[in-house]
Amino acid sequence: MRTNLLEAYGKQLNVAEAYVAKNFDGKRISSNTKLTTAVLLDNTNRWMTESMNESVATNRGDLGAWKRFCLNLTNIAVPSLIANDLVIVHPMTSYSGSVAYLKYVALTDKGGVKVGDEFNSVFGLGMMDDKRVGYTSQVIVETGHGPAAMDVLENGLTYEEDGAIKKATYKSIKADGSVVYGPSIDGEAVKFAYASKVFQMEKVPAEDIPTIGPKMEHIALVAEPRRIAVKYDQITAFQAKTDYGFSLDKQIAEQACGELAYEIDTEIVDMLREGAGAALAELTWSKTLPVGVSKFEHYNGFLEIVEAAKAIIYNRTQKFHPNYMVIAADVLQVLRFVNGFTAVKNAKMNGPYKVGDLDGMGVYVSPRLGMGEFFFGLNGSDMMSSAGVYAPYMAIVPTQLLGTPDGGLAQGFSTWYAKALLNKNLLVAGKITK
Question: pLDDT of 148-172, one tens digit each?
């Protein structure tokens, strides 16, 4: 299907590539965006064909021109969205679908690890704590409160005390790091290490070993319609054509498509901003200049915040770094002083827009963010390494231009798409204060 669609709509995709490169500072369309555009062109083509078959109009040439106009809108509008850069785009061939992903969970209890505990998933490796370190060993380590909190296993531990070899049922590691063999103080939080006959990894075949297994999860996606209608009259259209030399119907189409694109990008930004949560204290930075420090030196120190955000996301997932940053317009005043920031030469603005790159990390401005607000996120090559998903079902589709007896003209525009937040751990927010 993928190859056939890319071949069938190859000419349209070439036009889309040329348009994006011209209007977005030489930007290249990713393979995923090409596939998304091809799927939406096919959805739109089939929808328009069905509409034409059901139409009572007699002039099929006009309907053919209308269909080409609709496909051209799809071809230009979809690759221009910044949603392509902020989240993974998953085109749907039906109005409902789902995202499937695997995670790995414990299938056996061992120490502090219980059945169902998540060990590894596509969204992150998980924290490597004490109970997980010991999961594959023959020793069980768990935290308890005194000897009454545990089930003592067989095969006691030997240890040396006052030159003599002694044997204890268990050992406990206290909060200060000291080791106690034998009973500990009741109620005191300690870590117990047992030697167990149950998990003898050197035996072949092993009677019982710690086990993990895959578990399939699903995230439901349901496309919702967005619609807008425009109205104008023949007199206005005549004035626009004769006095100013432009076609009002094309101008109206651009405005309607611009509004829908603005709303799509803004909804994606809102979803990601909500997922990032409130600004963290460690990612709060003040613009106030310290005494004796130049503005360039101080503002360039904002790089420390960037690196702190990367560390937070990495520590959460053990495998990911953010690759984009969404900022309020006033944050750009700071980034201009930061080493490694490269501005887009000819930024095309329609609400949210790309303003540049910071050491390879894309930077986008959104009017939805308040003064000084910003957040970091990751958009990888698949749904498992992206903070969210944008799932379009139908691109921007207009109705035919309809006339009314009083000389008015009306046209409707609509789009269908779904969106979902996949992984909050790939998002983190900060704030710049005065």
Answer: 434 444 444 555 566 666 655 555 5
